[in-house]
């Protein structure tokens, strides 16, 4: 028969491990989002699609890449570097939601739904980015261009763009259910809830609005918007959640 005192001690120890892990994962999530955003903005300008012509006029890029988007070997690996922190960010977000799930009490249903969407997002992004890094890059450098057009990140209506849009939409849905978990009335939990709900509404609403405006010419408009929304949301919420986990660990120590 299990010793109730030992069980209580183990439970307290498990909670502390969750708080400690949650604290560090929240920080790493914010750092990865900052890195992905900073690298993408500075090293991967739009070289095709609707955002390219304005960049040509401003002198940011020399010219726009046209179909079949194979003349891009010169941009390997510099314009793919941002995918490394983005890849890690997707995985970190899953662990972060798991930590949140383990500190919830009466709202585990919502945190589990959030975790389900986070896993879908991570699986989508992991497959998408790994293909770009392990298949597309070497294929471009070796001149193996056959069948690459649909997978190219430079194709504004290709598979890469579609998977990114799907992944960041799922992440936006996850934000909504994570926000429902935070029901506290103190400033910190209200701030976390506000940031996550705002990010979710913008991510979901952005797709509806842009799809209505552009239809089949949506291209990467939503993908770019969703990336910006989700990464900024993760930067802010990651910082706030690190404070939340740190504070929760201190309160637990005082019991």
Primary descriptors:
255 residues; mainly alpha; 73% helix; 0% strand; disordered N terminus
Structure description:
With 255 residues, the chain is mostly helical. It has one domain. It has helices spanning 4-43, 52-58, 83-103, 108-141, 159-181, 187-214, 221-254. Helix 1 (4-43) packs antiparallel against helix 3 (83-103) and helix 3 (83-103) packs antiparallel against helix 4 (108-141). Mean pLDDT is 92; it is low at 1-10.
Number of E-type strands: 0
Shape: elongated
Radius of gyration: 21 Å
Helix/strand order: HHHHHHH
Total domain count: 1
Which spans have pLDDT < 50 for at least 5 consecutive residues? 1-10
Broad structural category: mainly alpha
Share in β-strands: under 5%
H/I helix tally:
7
Straight-line N-to-C gap: 26 Å
Roughly what percent helix? over 70%
What does the average pLDDT come to? 92
Brief write-up:
The chain has 255 residues and is mostly helical. Helix content is 73%, strand content 0%. The chain has one domain (4-254).
């Amino acid at each position: 028969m299990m010793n109730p005192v030992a069980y209580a001690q183990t439970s307290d120890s498990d909670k502390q491990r969750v708080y400690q892990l949650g604290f560090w994962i929240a920080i790493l999530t914010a750092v990865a989002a900052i890195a992905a955003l900073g690298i993408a903005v500075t090293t991967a300008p739009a070289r095709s699609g609707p955002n390219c012509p304005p960049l040509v006029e401003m002198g940011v890029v020399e010219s726009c890449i046209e179909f079949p988007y194979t003349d891009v070997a010169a941009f390997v690996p510099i314009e793919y570097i941002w995918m490394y922190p983005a890849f890690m960010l997707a995985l970190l977000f899953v662990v972060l939601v798991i930590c949140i799930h383990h500190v919830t009490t009466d709202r585990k249903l919502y945190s589990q739904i959030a975790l389900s969407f986070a896993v879908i997002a991570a699986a989508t992004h992991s497959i998408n980015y790994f293909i770009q890094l392990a298949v597309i890059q070497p294929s471009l450098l070796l001149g193996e261009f056959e069948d690459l057009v649909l997978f190219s990140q430079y194709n504004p209506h290709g598979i890469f763009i579609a998977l990114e849009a799907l992944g960041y939409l799922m992440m936006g849905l996850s934000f909504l259910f994570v926000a429902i978990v935070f029901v506290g009335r103190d400033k910190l939990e209200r701030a976390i809830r506000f940031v996550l709900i705002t990010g979710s509404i913008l991510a979901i609403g952005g797709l509806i609005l842009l799809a209505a405006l552009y239809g089949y010419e949506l291209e990467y408009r939503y993908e770019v918007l969703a990336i910006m929304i989700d990464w900024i949301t993760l930067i802010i919420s990651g910082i706030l959640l690190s404070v939340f986990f740190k504070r929760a660990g201190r309160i637990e120590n005082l019991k």
